[in-house]
Design goal:
Elements (H helix, E strand, L loop, with lengths): L1 E4 L2 E7 H7 L8 E3 L7 H5 L6 H13 L5 H11 L6 E5 L2 E5 L9 H15 L7 E6 L3 H10 L5 E8 L5 H8 L5 E6 L3 H12 L2 H6 L1 E4 L5 H20 L5 E6 L4 H11 L4 E8 L4 H8 L23 H8 L3 H7 E5 L2 H15 L5 H16 L6 E6 L12 H4 L6 H4 L8 E4 L3 H10 L2
Parallel strand pairs: 5-13, 6-7, 6-9, 7-8, 8-14, 10-11, 10-13, 11-12
Antiparallel strand pairs: 1-2, 1-3, 4-5
Helix pairs in contact: 3-4, 3-10, 4-5, 5-6, 5-10, 6-7, 10-11, 15-16
The structure holds ligand LJ64HWYM.
């Protein structure tokens, strides 16, 4: 597998280099030079395969010989050791539950695969890997658990103070060992820009071996393609072969992975990019003007991203063909009041509790289906996090129905360990240098 930079298509690095560099020095993002099509026979017979089998075939198709087959198989079986069921709620409305991993969010796919691939590539005696990660809520917890105790790695999580849920904060800040948390007096975008600046800082790069666990790292996107194929496999088992995916979207890594799956030949008819008030992409899809704005705080906090990192990858996939992009991806955005209404509606219609991000995707799917009533594709909305992570923003009558998993109960009483930080890069740099 070779990858280029979205800012320089002539550059070419190996998968291992792309994983460790995270992003090219020219500030673009890595993209595969080739996105090989999977055998159509395999795709039309996906229903015969298990999730680990599908994941292996998809990963092998993308990575080529970057990891020997037996090692790749073992790595996937270890990383993706939880399910991603598609549940039918009504005719042609399905939820893809992506919250059955240890941090109860879809980020477990990316974080667990990434920690294992990095650990696999790290050689004995090499310098410690310093993993930097910015989070608006869910990435941080998944990365913390994915890397906890992984030898020769240290994770530094930056999160916006007061803008993540109580359980998300506990997941980020109570781990100790090789995981540390920085509580930034700013937004997710501030956290993300501190991390990105660190990657281009000569002094920090000389001192540390820096890498990122955000979806700017291609190792996060590869495993996120698996569940699109696996969802299709489940639909095939129910006699459905046409599909539309509604994807809760913040940093656009999730939908970016779906588009990679589509490029590999998965017959997805439509992507619905569902956002909260941070509607940079839906606004672009309507007006043609791409105008990142500072993020605003919402109750679907993990999607509070004003300048989505992965949009450059998506634009790159379509090169100059904006019309094709706009045809395949439709954008919808909702404010907090609409989000709460959607949570209540989902509960009233199906006695099913969703998190605020998932509610937005459901609403977008329903709105799309109303406008496209002649289309008989199965509509699948992605459930990106377990609702128990957001008890305070879900109306009490619905929240009272949530069954809280054991892993959350275990967080109770654990002490928060976090260092407060300003949004000034000089402070972040000083912290890193003083805490080697
Ligand atoms: N939604 C994210 C924000 C970071 O996005 P990522 O996909 O680049 O890690 C979060 O929950 O932290």
């Amino acid at each position: 597998m070779k990858l280029y930079s979205t800012n320089n298509t002539a550059a070419s690095v190996s998968f291992k280099e792309a994983v460790f560099n995270s992003m090219p020095q020219d500030k673009g993002l890595y993209m595969p030079v080739n996105i090989p099509q999977l055998d159509p026979e395999f795709i039309s017979n996906l229903d015969k395969y298990t999730l680990p089998e599908i994941a292996f075939r998809v990963a092998k198709n993308l990575l080529g010989d970057a990891v020997p087959e037996a090692d790749l198989k073992a790595l996937i079986e270890d990383a993706i050791n939880f399910d991603a069921p598609v549940v039918e709620l009504e005719e042609d409305v399905y939820v893809l539950e992506l919250f059955h991993g240890p941090s109860l969010a879809f980020k477990d796919f990316g974080a667990r695969f990434m920690s294992r691939i990095m650990s696999y590539f790290l050689e004995a005696g090499e310098k410690q890997l310093d993993v930097l990660v910015a989070t608006s809520g869910d990435t941080g917890g998944a990365v913390a658990l994915g890397f906890l105790g992984v030898p020769n790695t240290r994770v530094t999580i930056l999160y916006p103070k007061g803008k993540v849920s109580g359980i998300q904060e506990q997941q980020l800040t109570t781990n100790g060992q090789n995981i540390r948390a920085l509580e930034v007096e700013g937004t997710f975008d501030d956290c993300q820009s501190l991390v990105k600046q660190a990657f281009t800082d000569a002094e920090l790069n000389a001192e540390f071996r820096l890498t990122s666990a955000n979806s700017i790292n291609i190792a996060r996107l590869v495993p996120q393609t698996f569940y699109y194929f696996n969802a299709y496999a489940q639909l095939l088992r129910q006699g459905k072969s046409k599909v539309v995916f509604a994807v809760p979207s913040g940093n656009f890594g999730n939908i970016g992975a779906g588009l990679l799956a589509w490029k590999m030949g998965l017959p997805i008819e439509q992507f619905i990019a569902a956002t909260n008030a941070n509607d940079t992409v839906p606004a672009f899809l309507k007006t043609g003007v791409y105008e990142p704005k500072p993020s605003v705080q919402t109750i679907s906090n993990a999607m509070d991203v004003g300048n989505p990192s992965n949009w450059v990858r998506i634009a790159d996939l379509f090169k100059e063909d904006t019309e094709a992009l706009k045809k395949l991806i439709i954008g919808y955005s909702y404010d907090d009041a609409e989000t709460v209404t959607a949570i209540e509606q989902v509960y009233d219609d199906y006695q099913y509790v969703v998190c605020p991000h998932t509610a937005i995707a459901w609403q977008a799917l329903k709105d799309w289906q109303i406008r496209n009533s002649e289309n008989d594709a199965a509509g699948v909305f992605l459930s990106t996090a377990h609702p128990c992570k957001f008890p305070d923003v879900i109306p009490a009558r619905v929240a009272s129905k949530i069954v809280v998993p054991e892993v959350v109960k275990e967080l109770e009483g654990k002490a928060k360990q976090a260092v407060e930080l300003s949004t000034d890069f000089a402070d972040f740099k000083a912290y890193l240098l003083a805490n080697k």
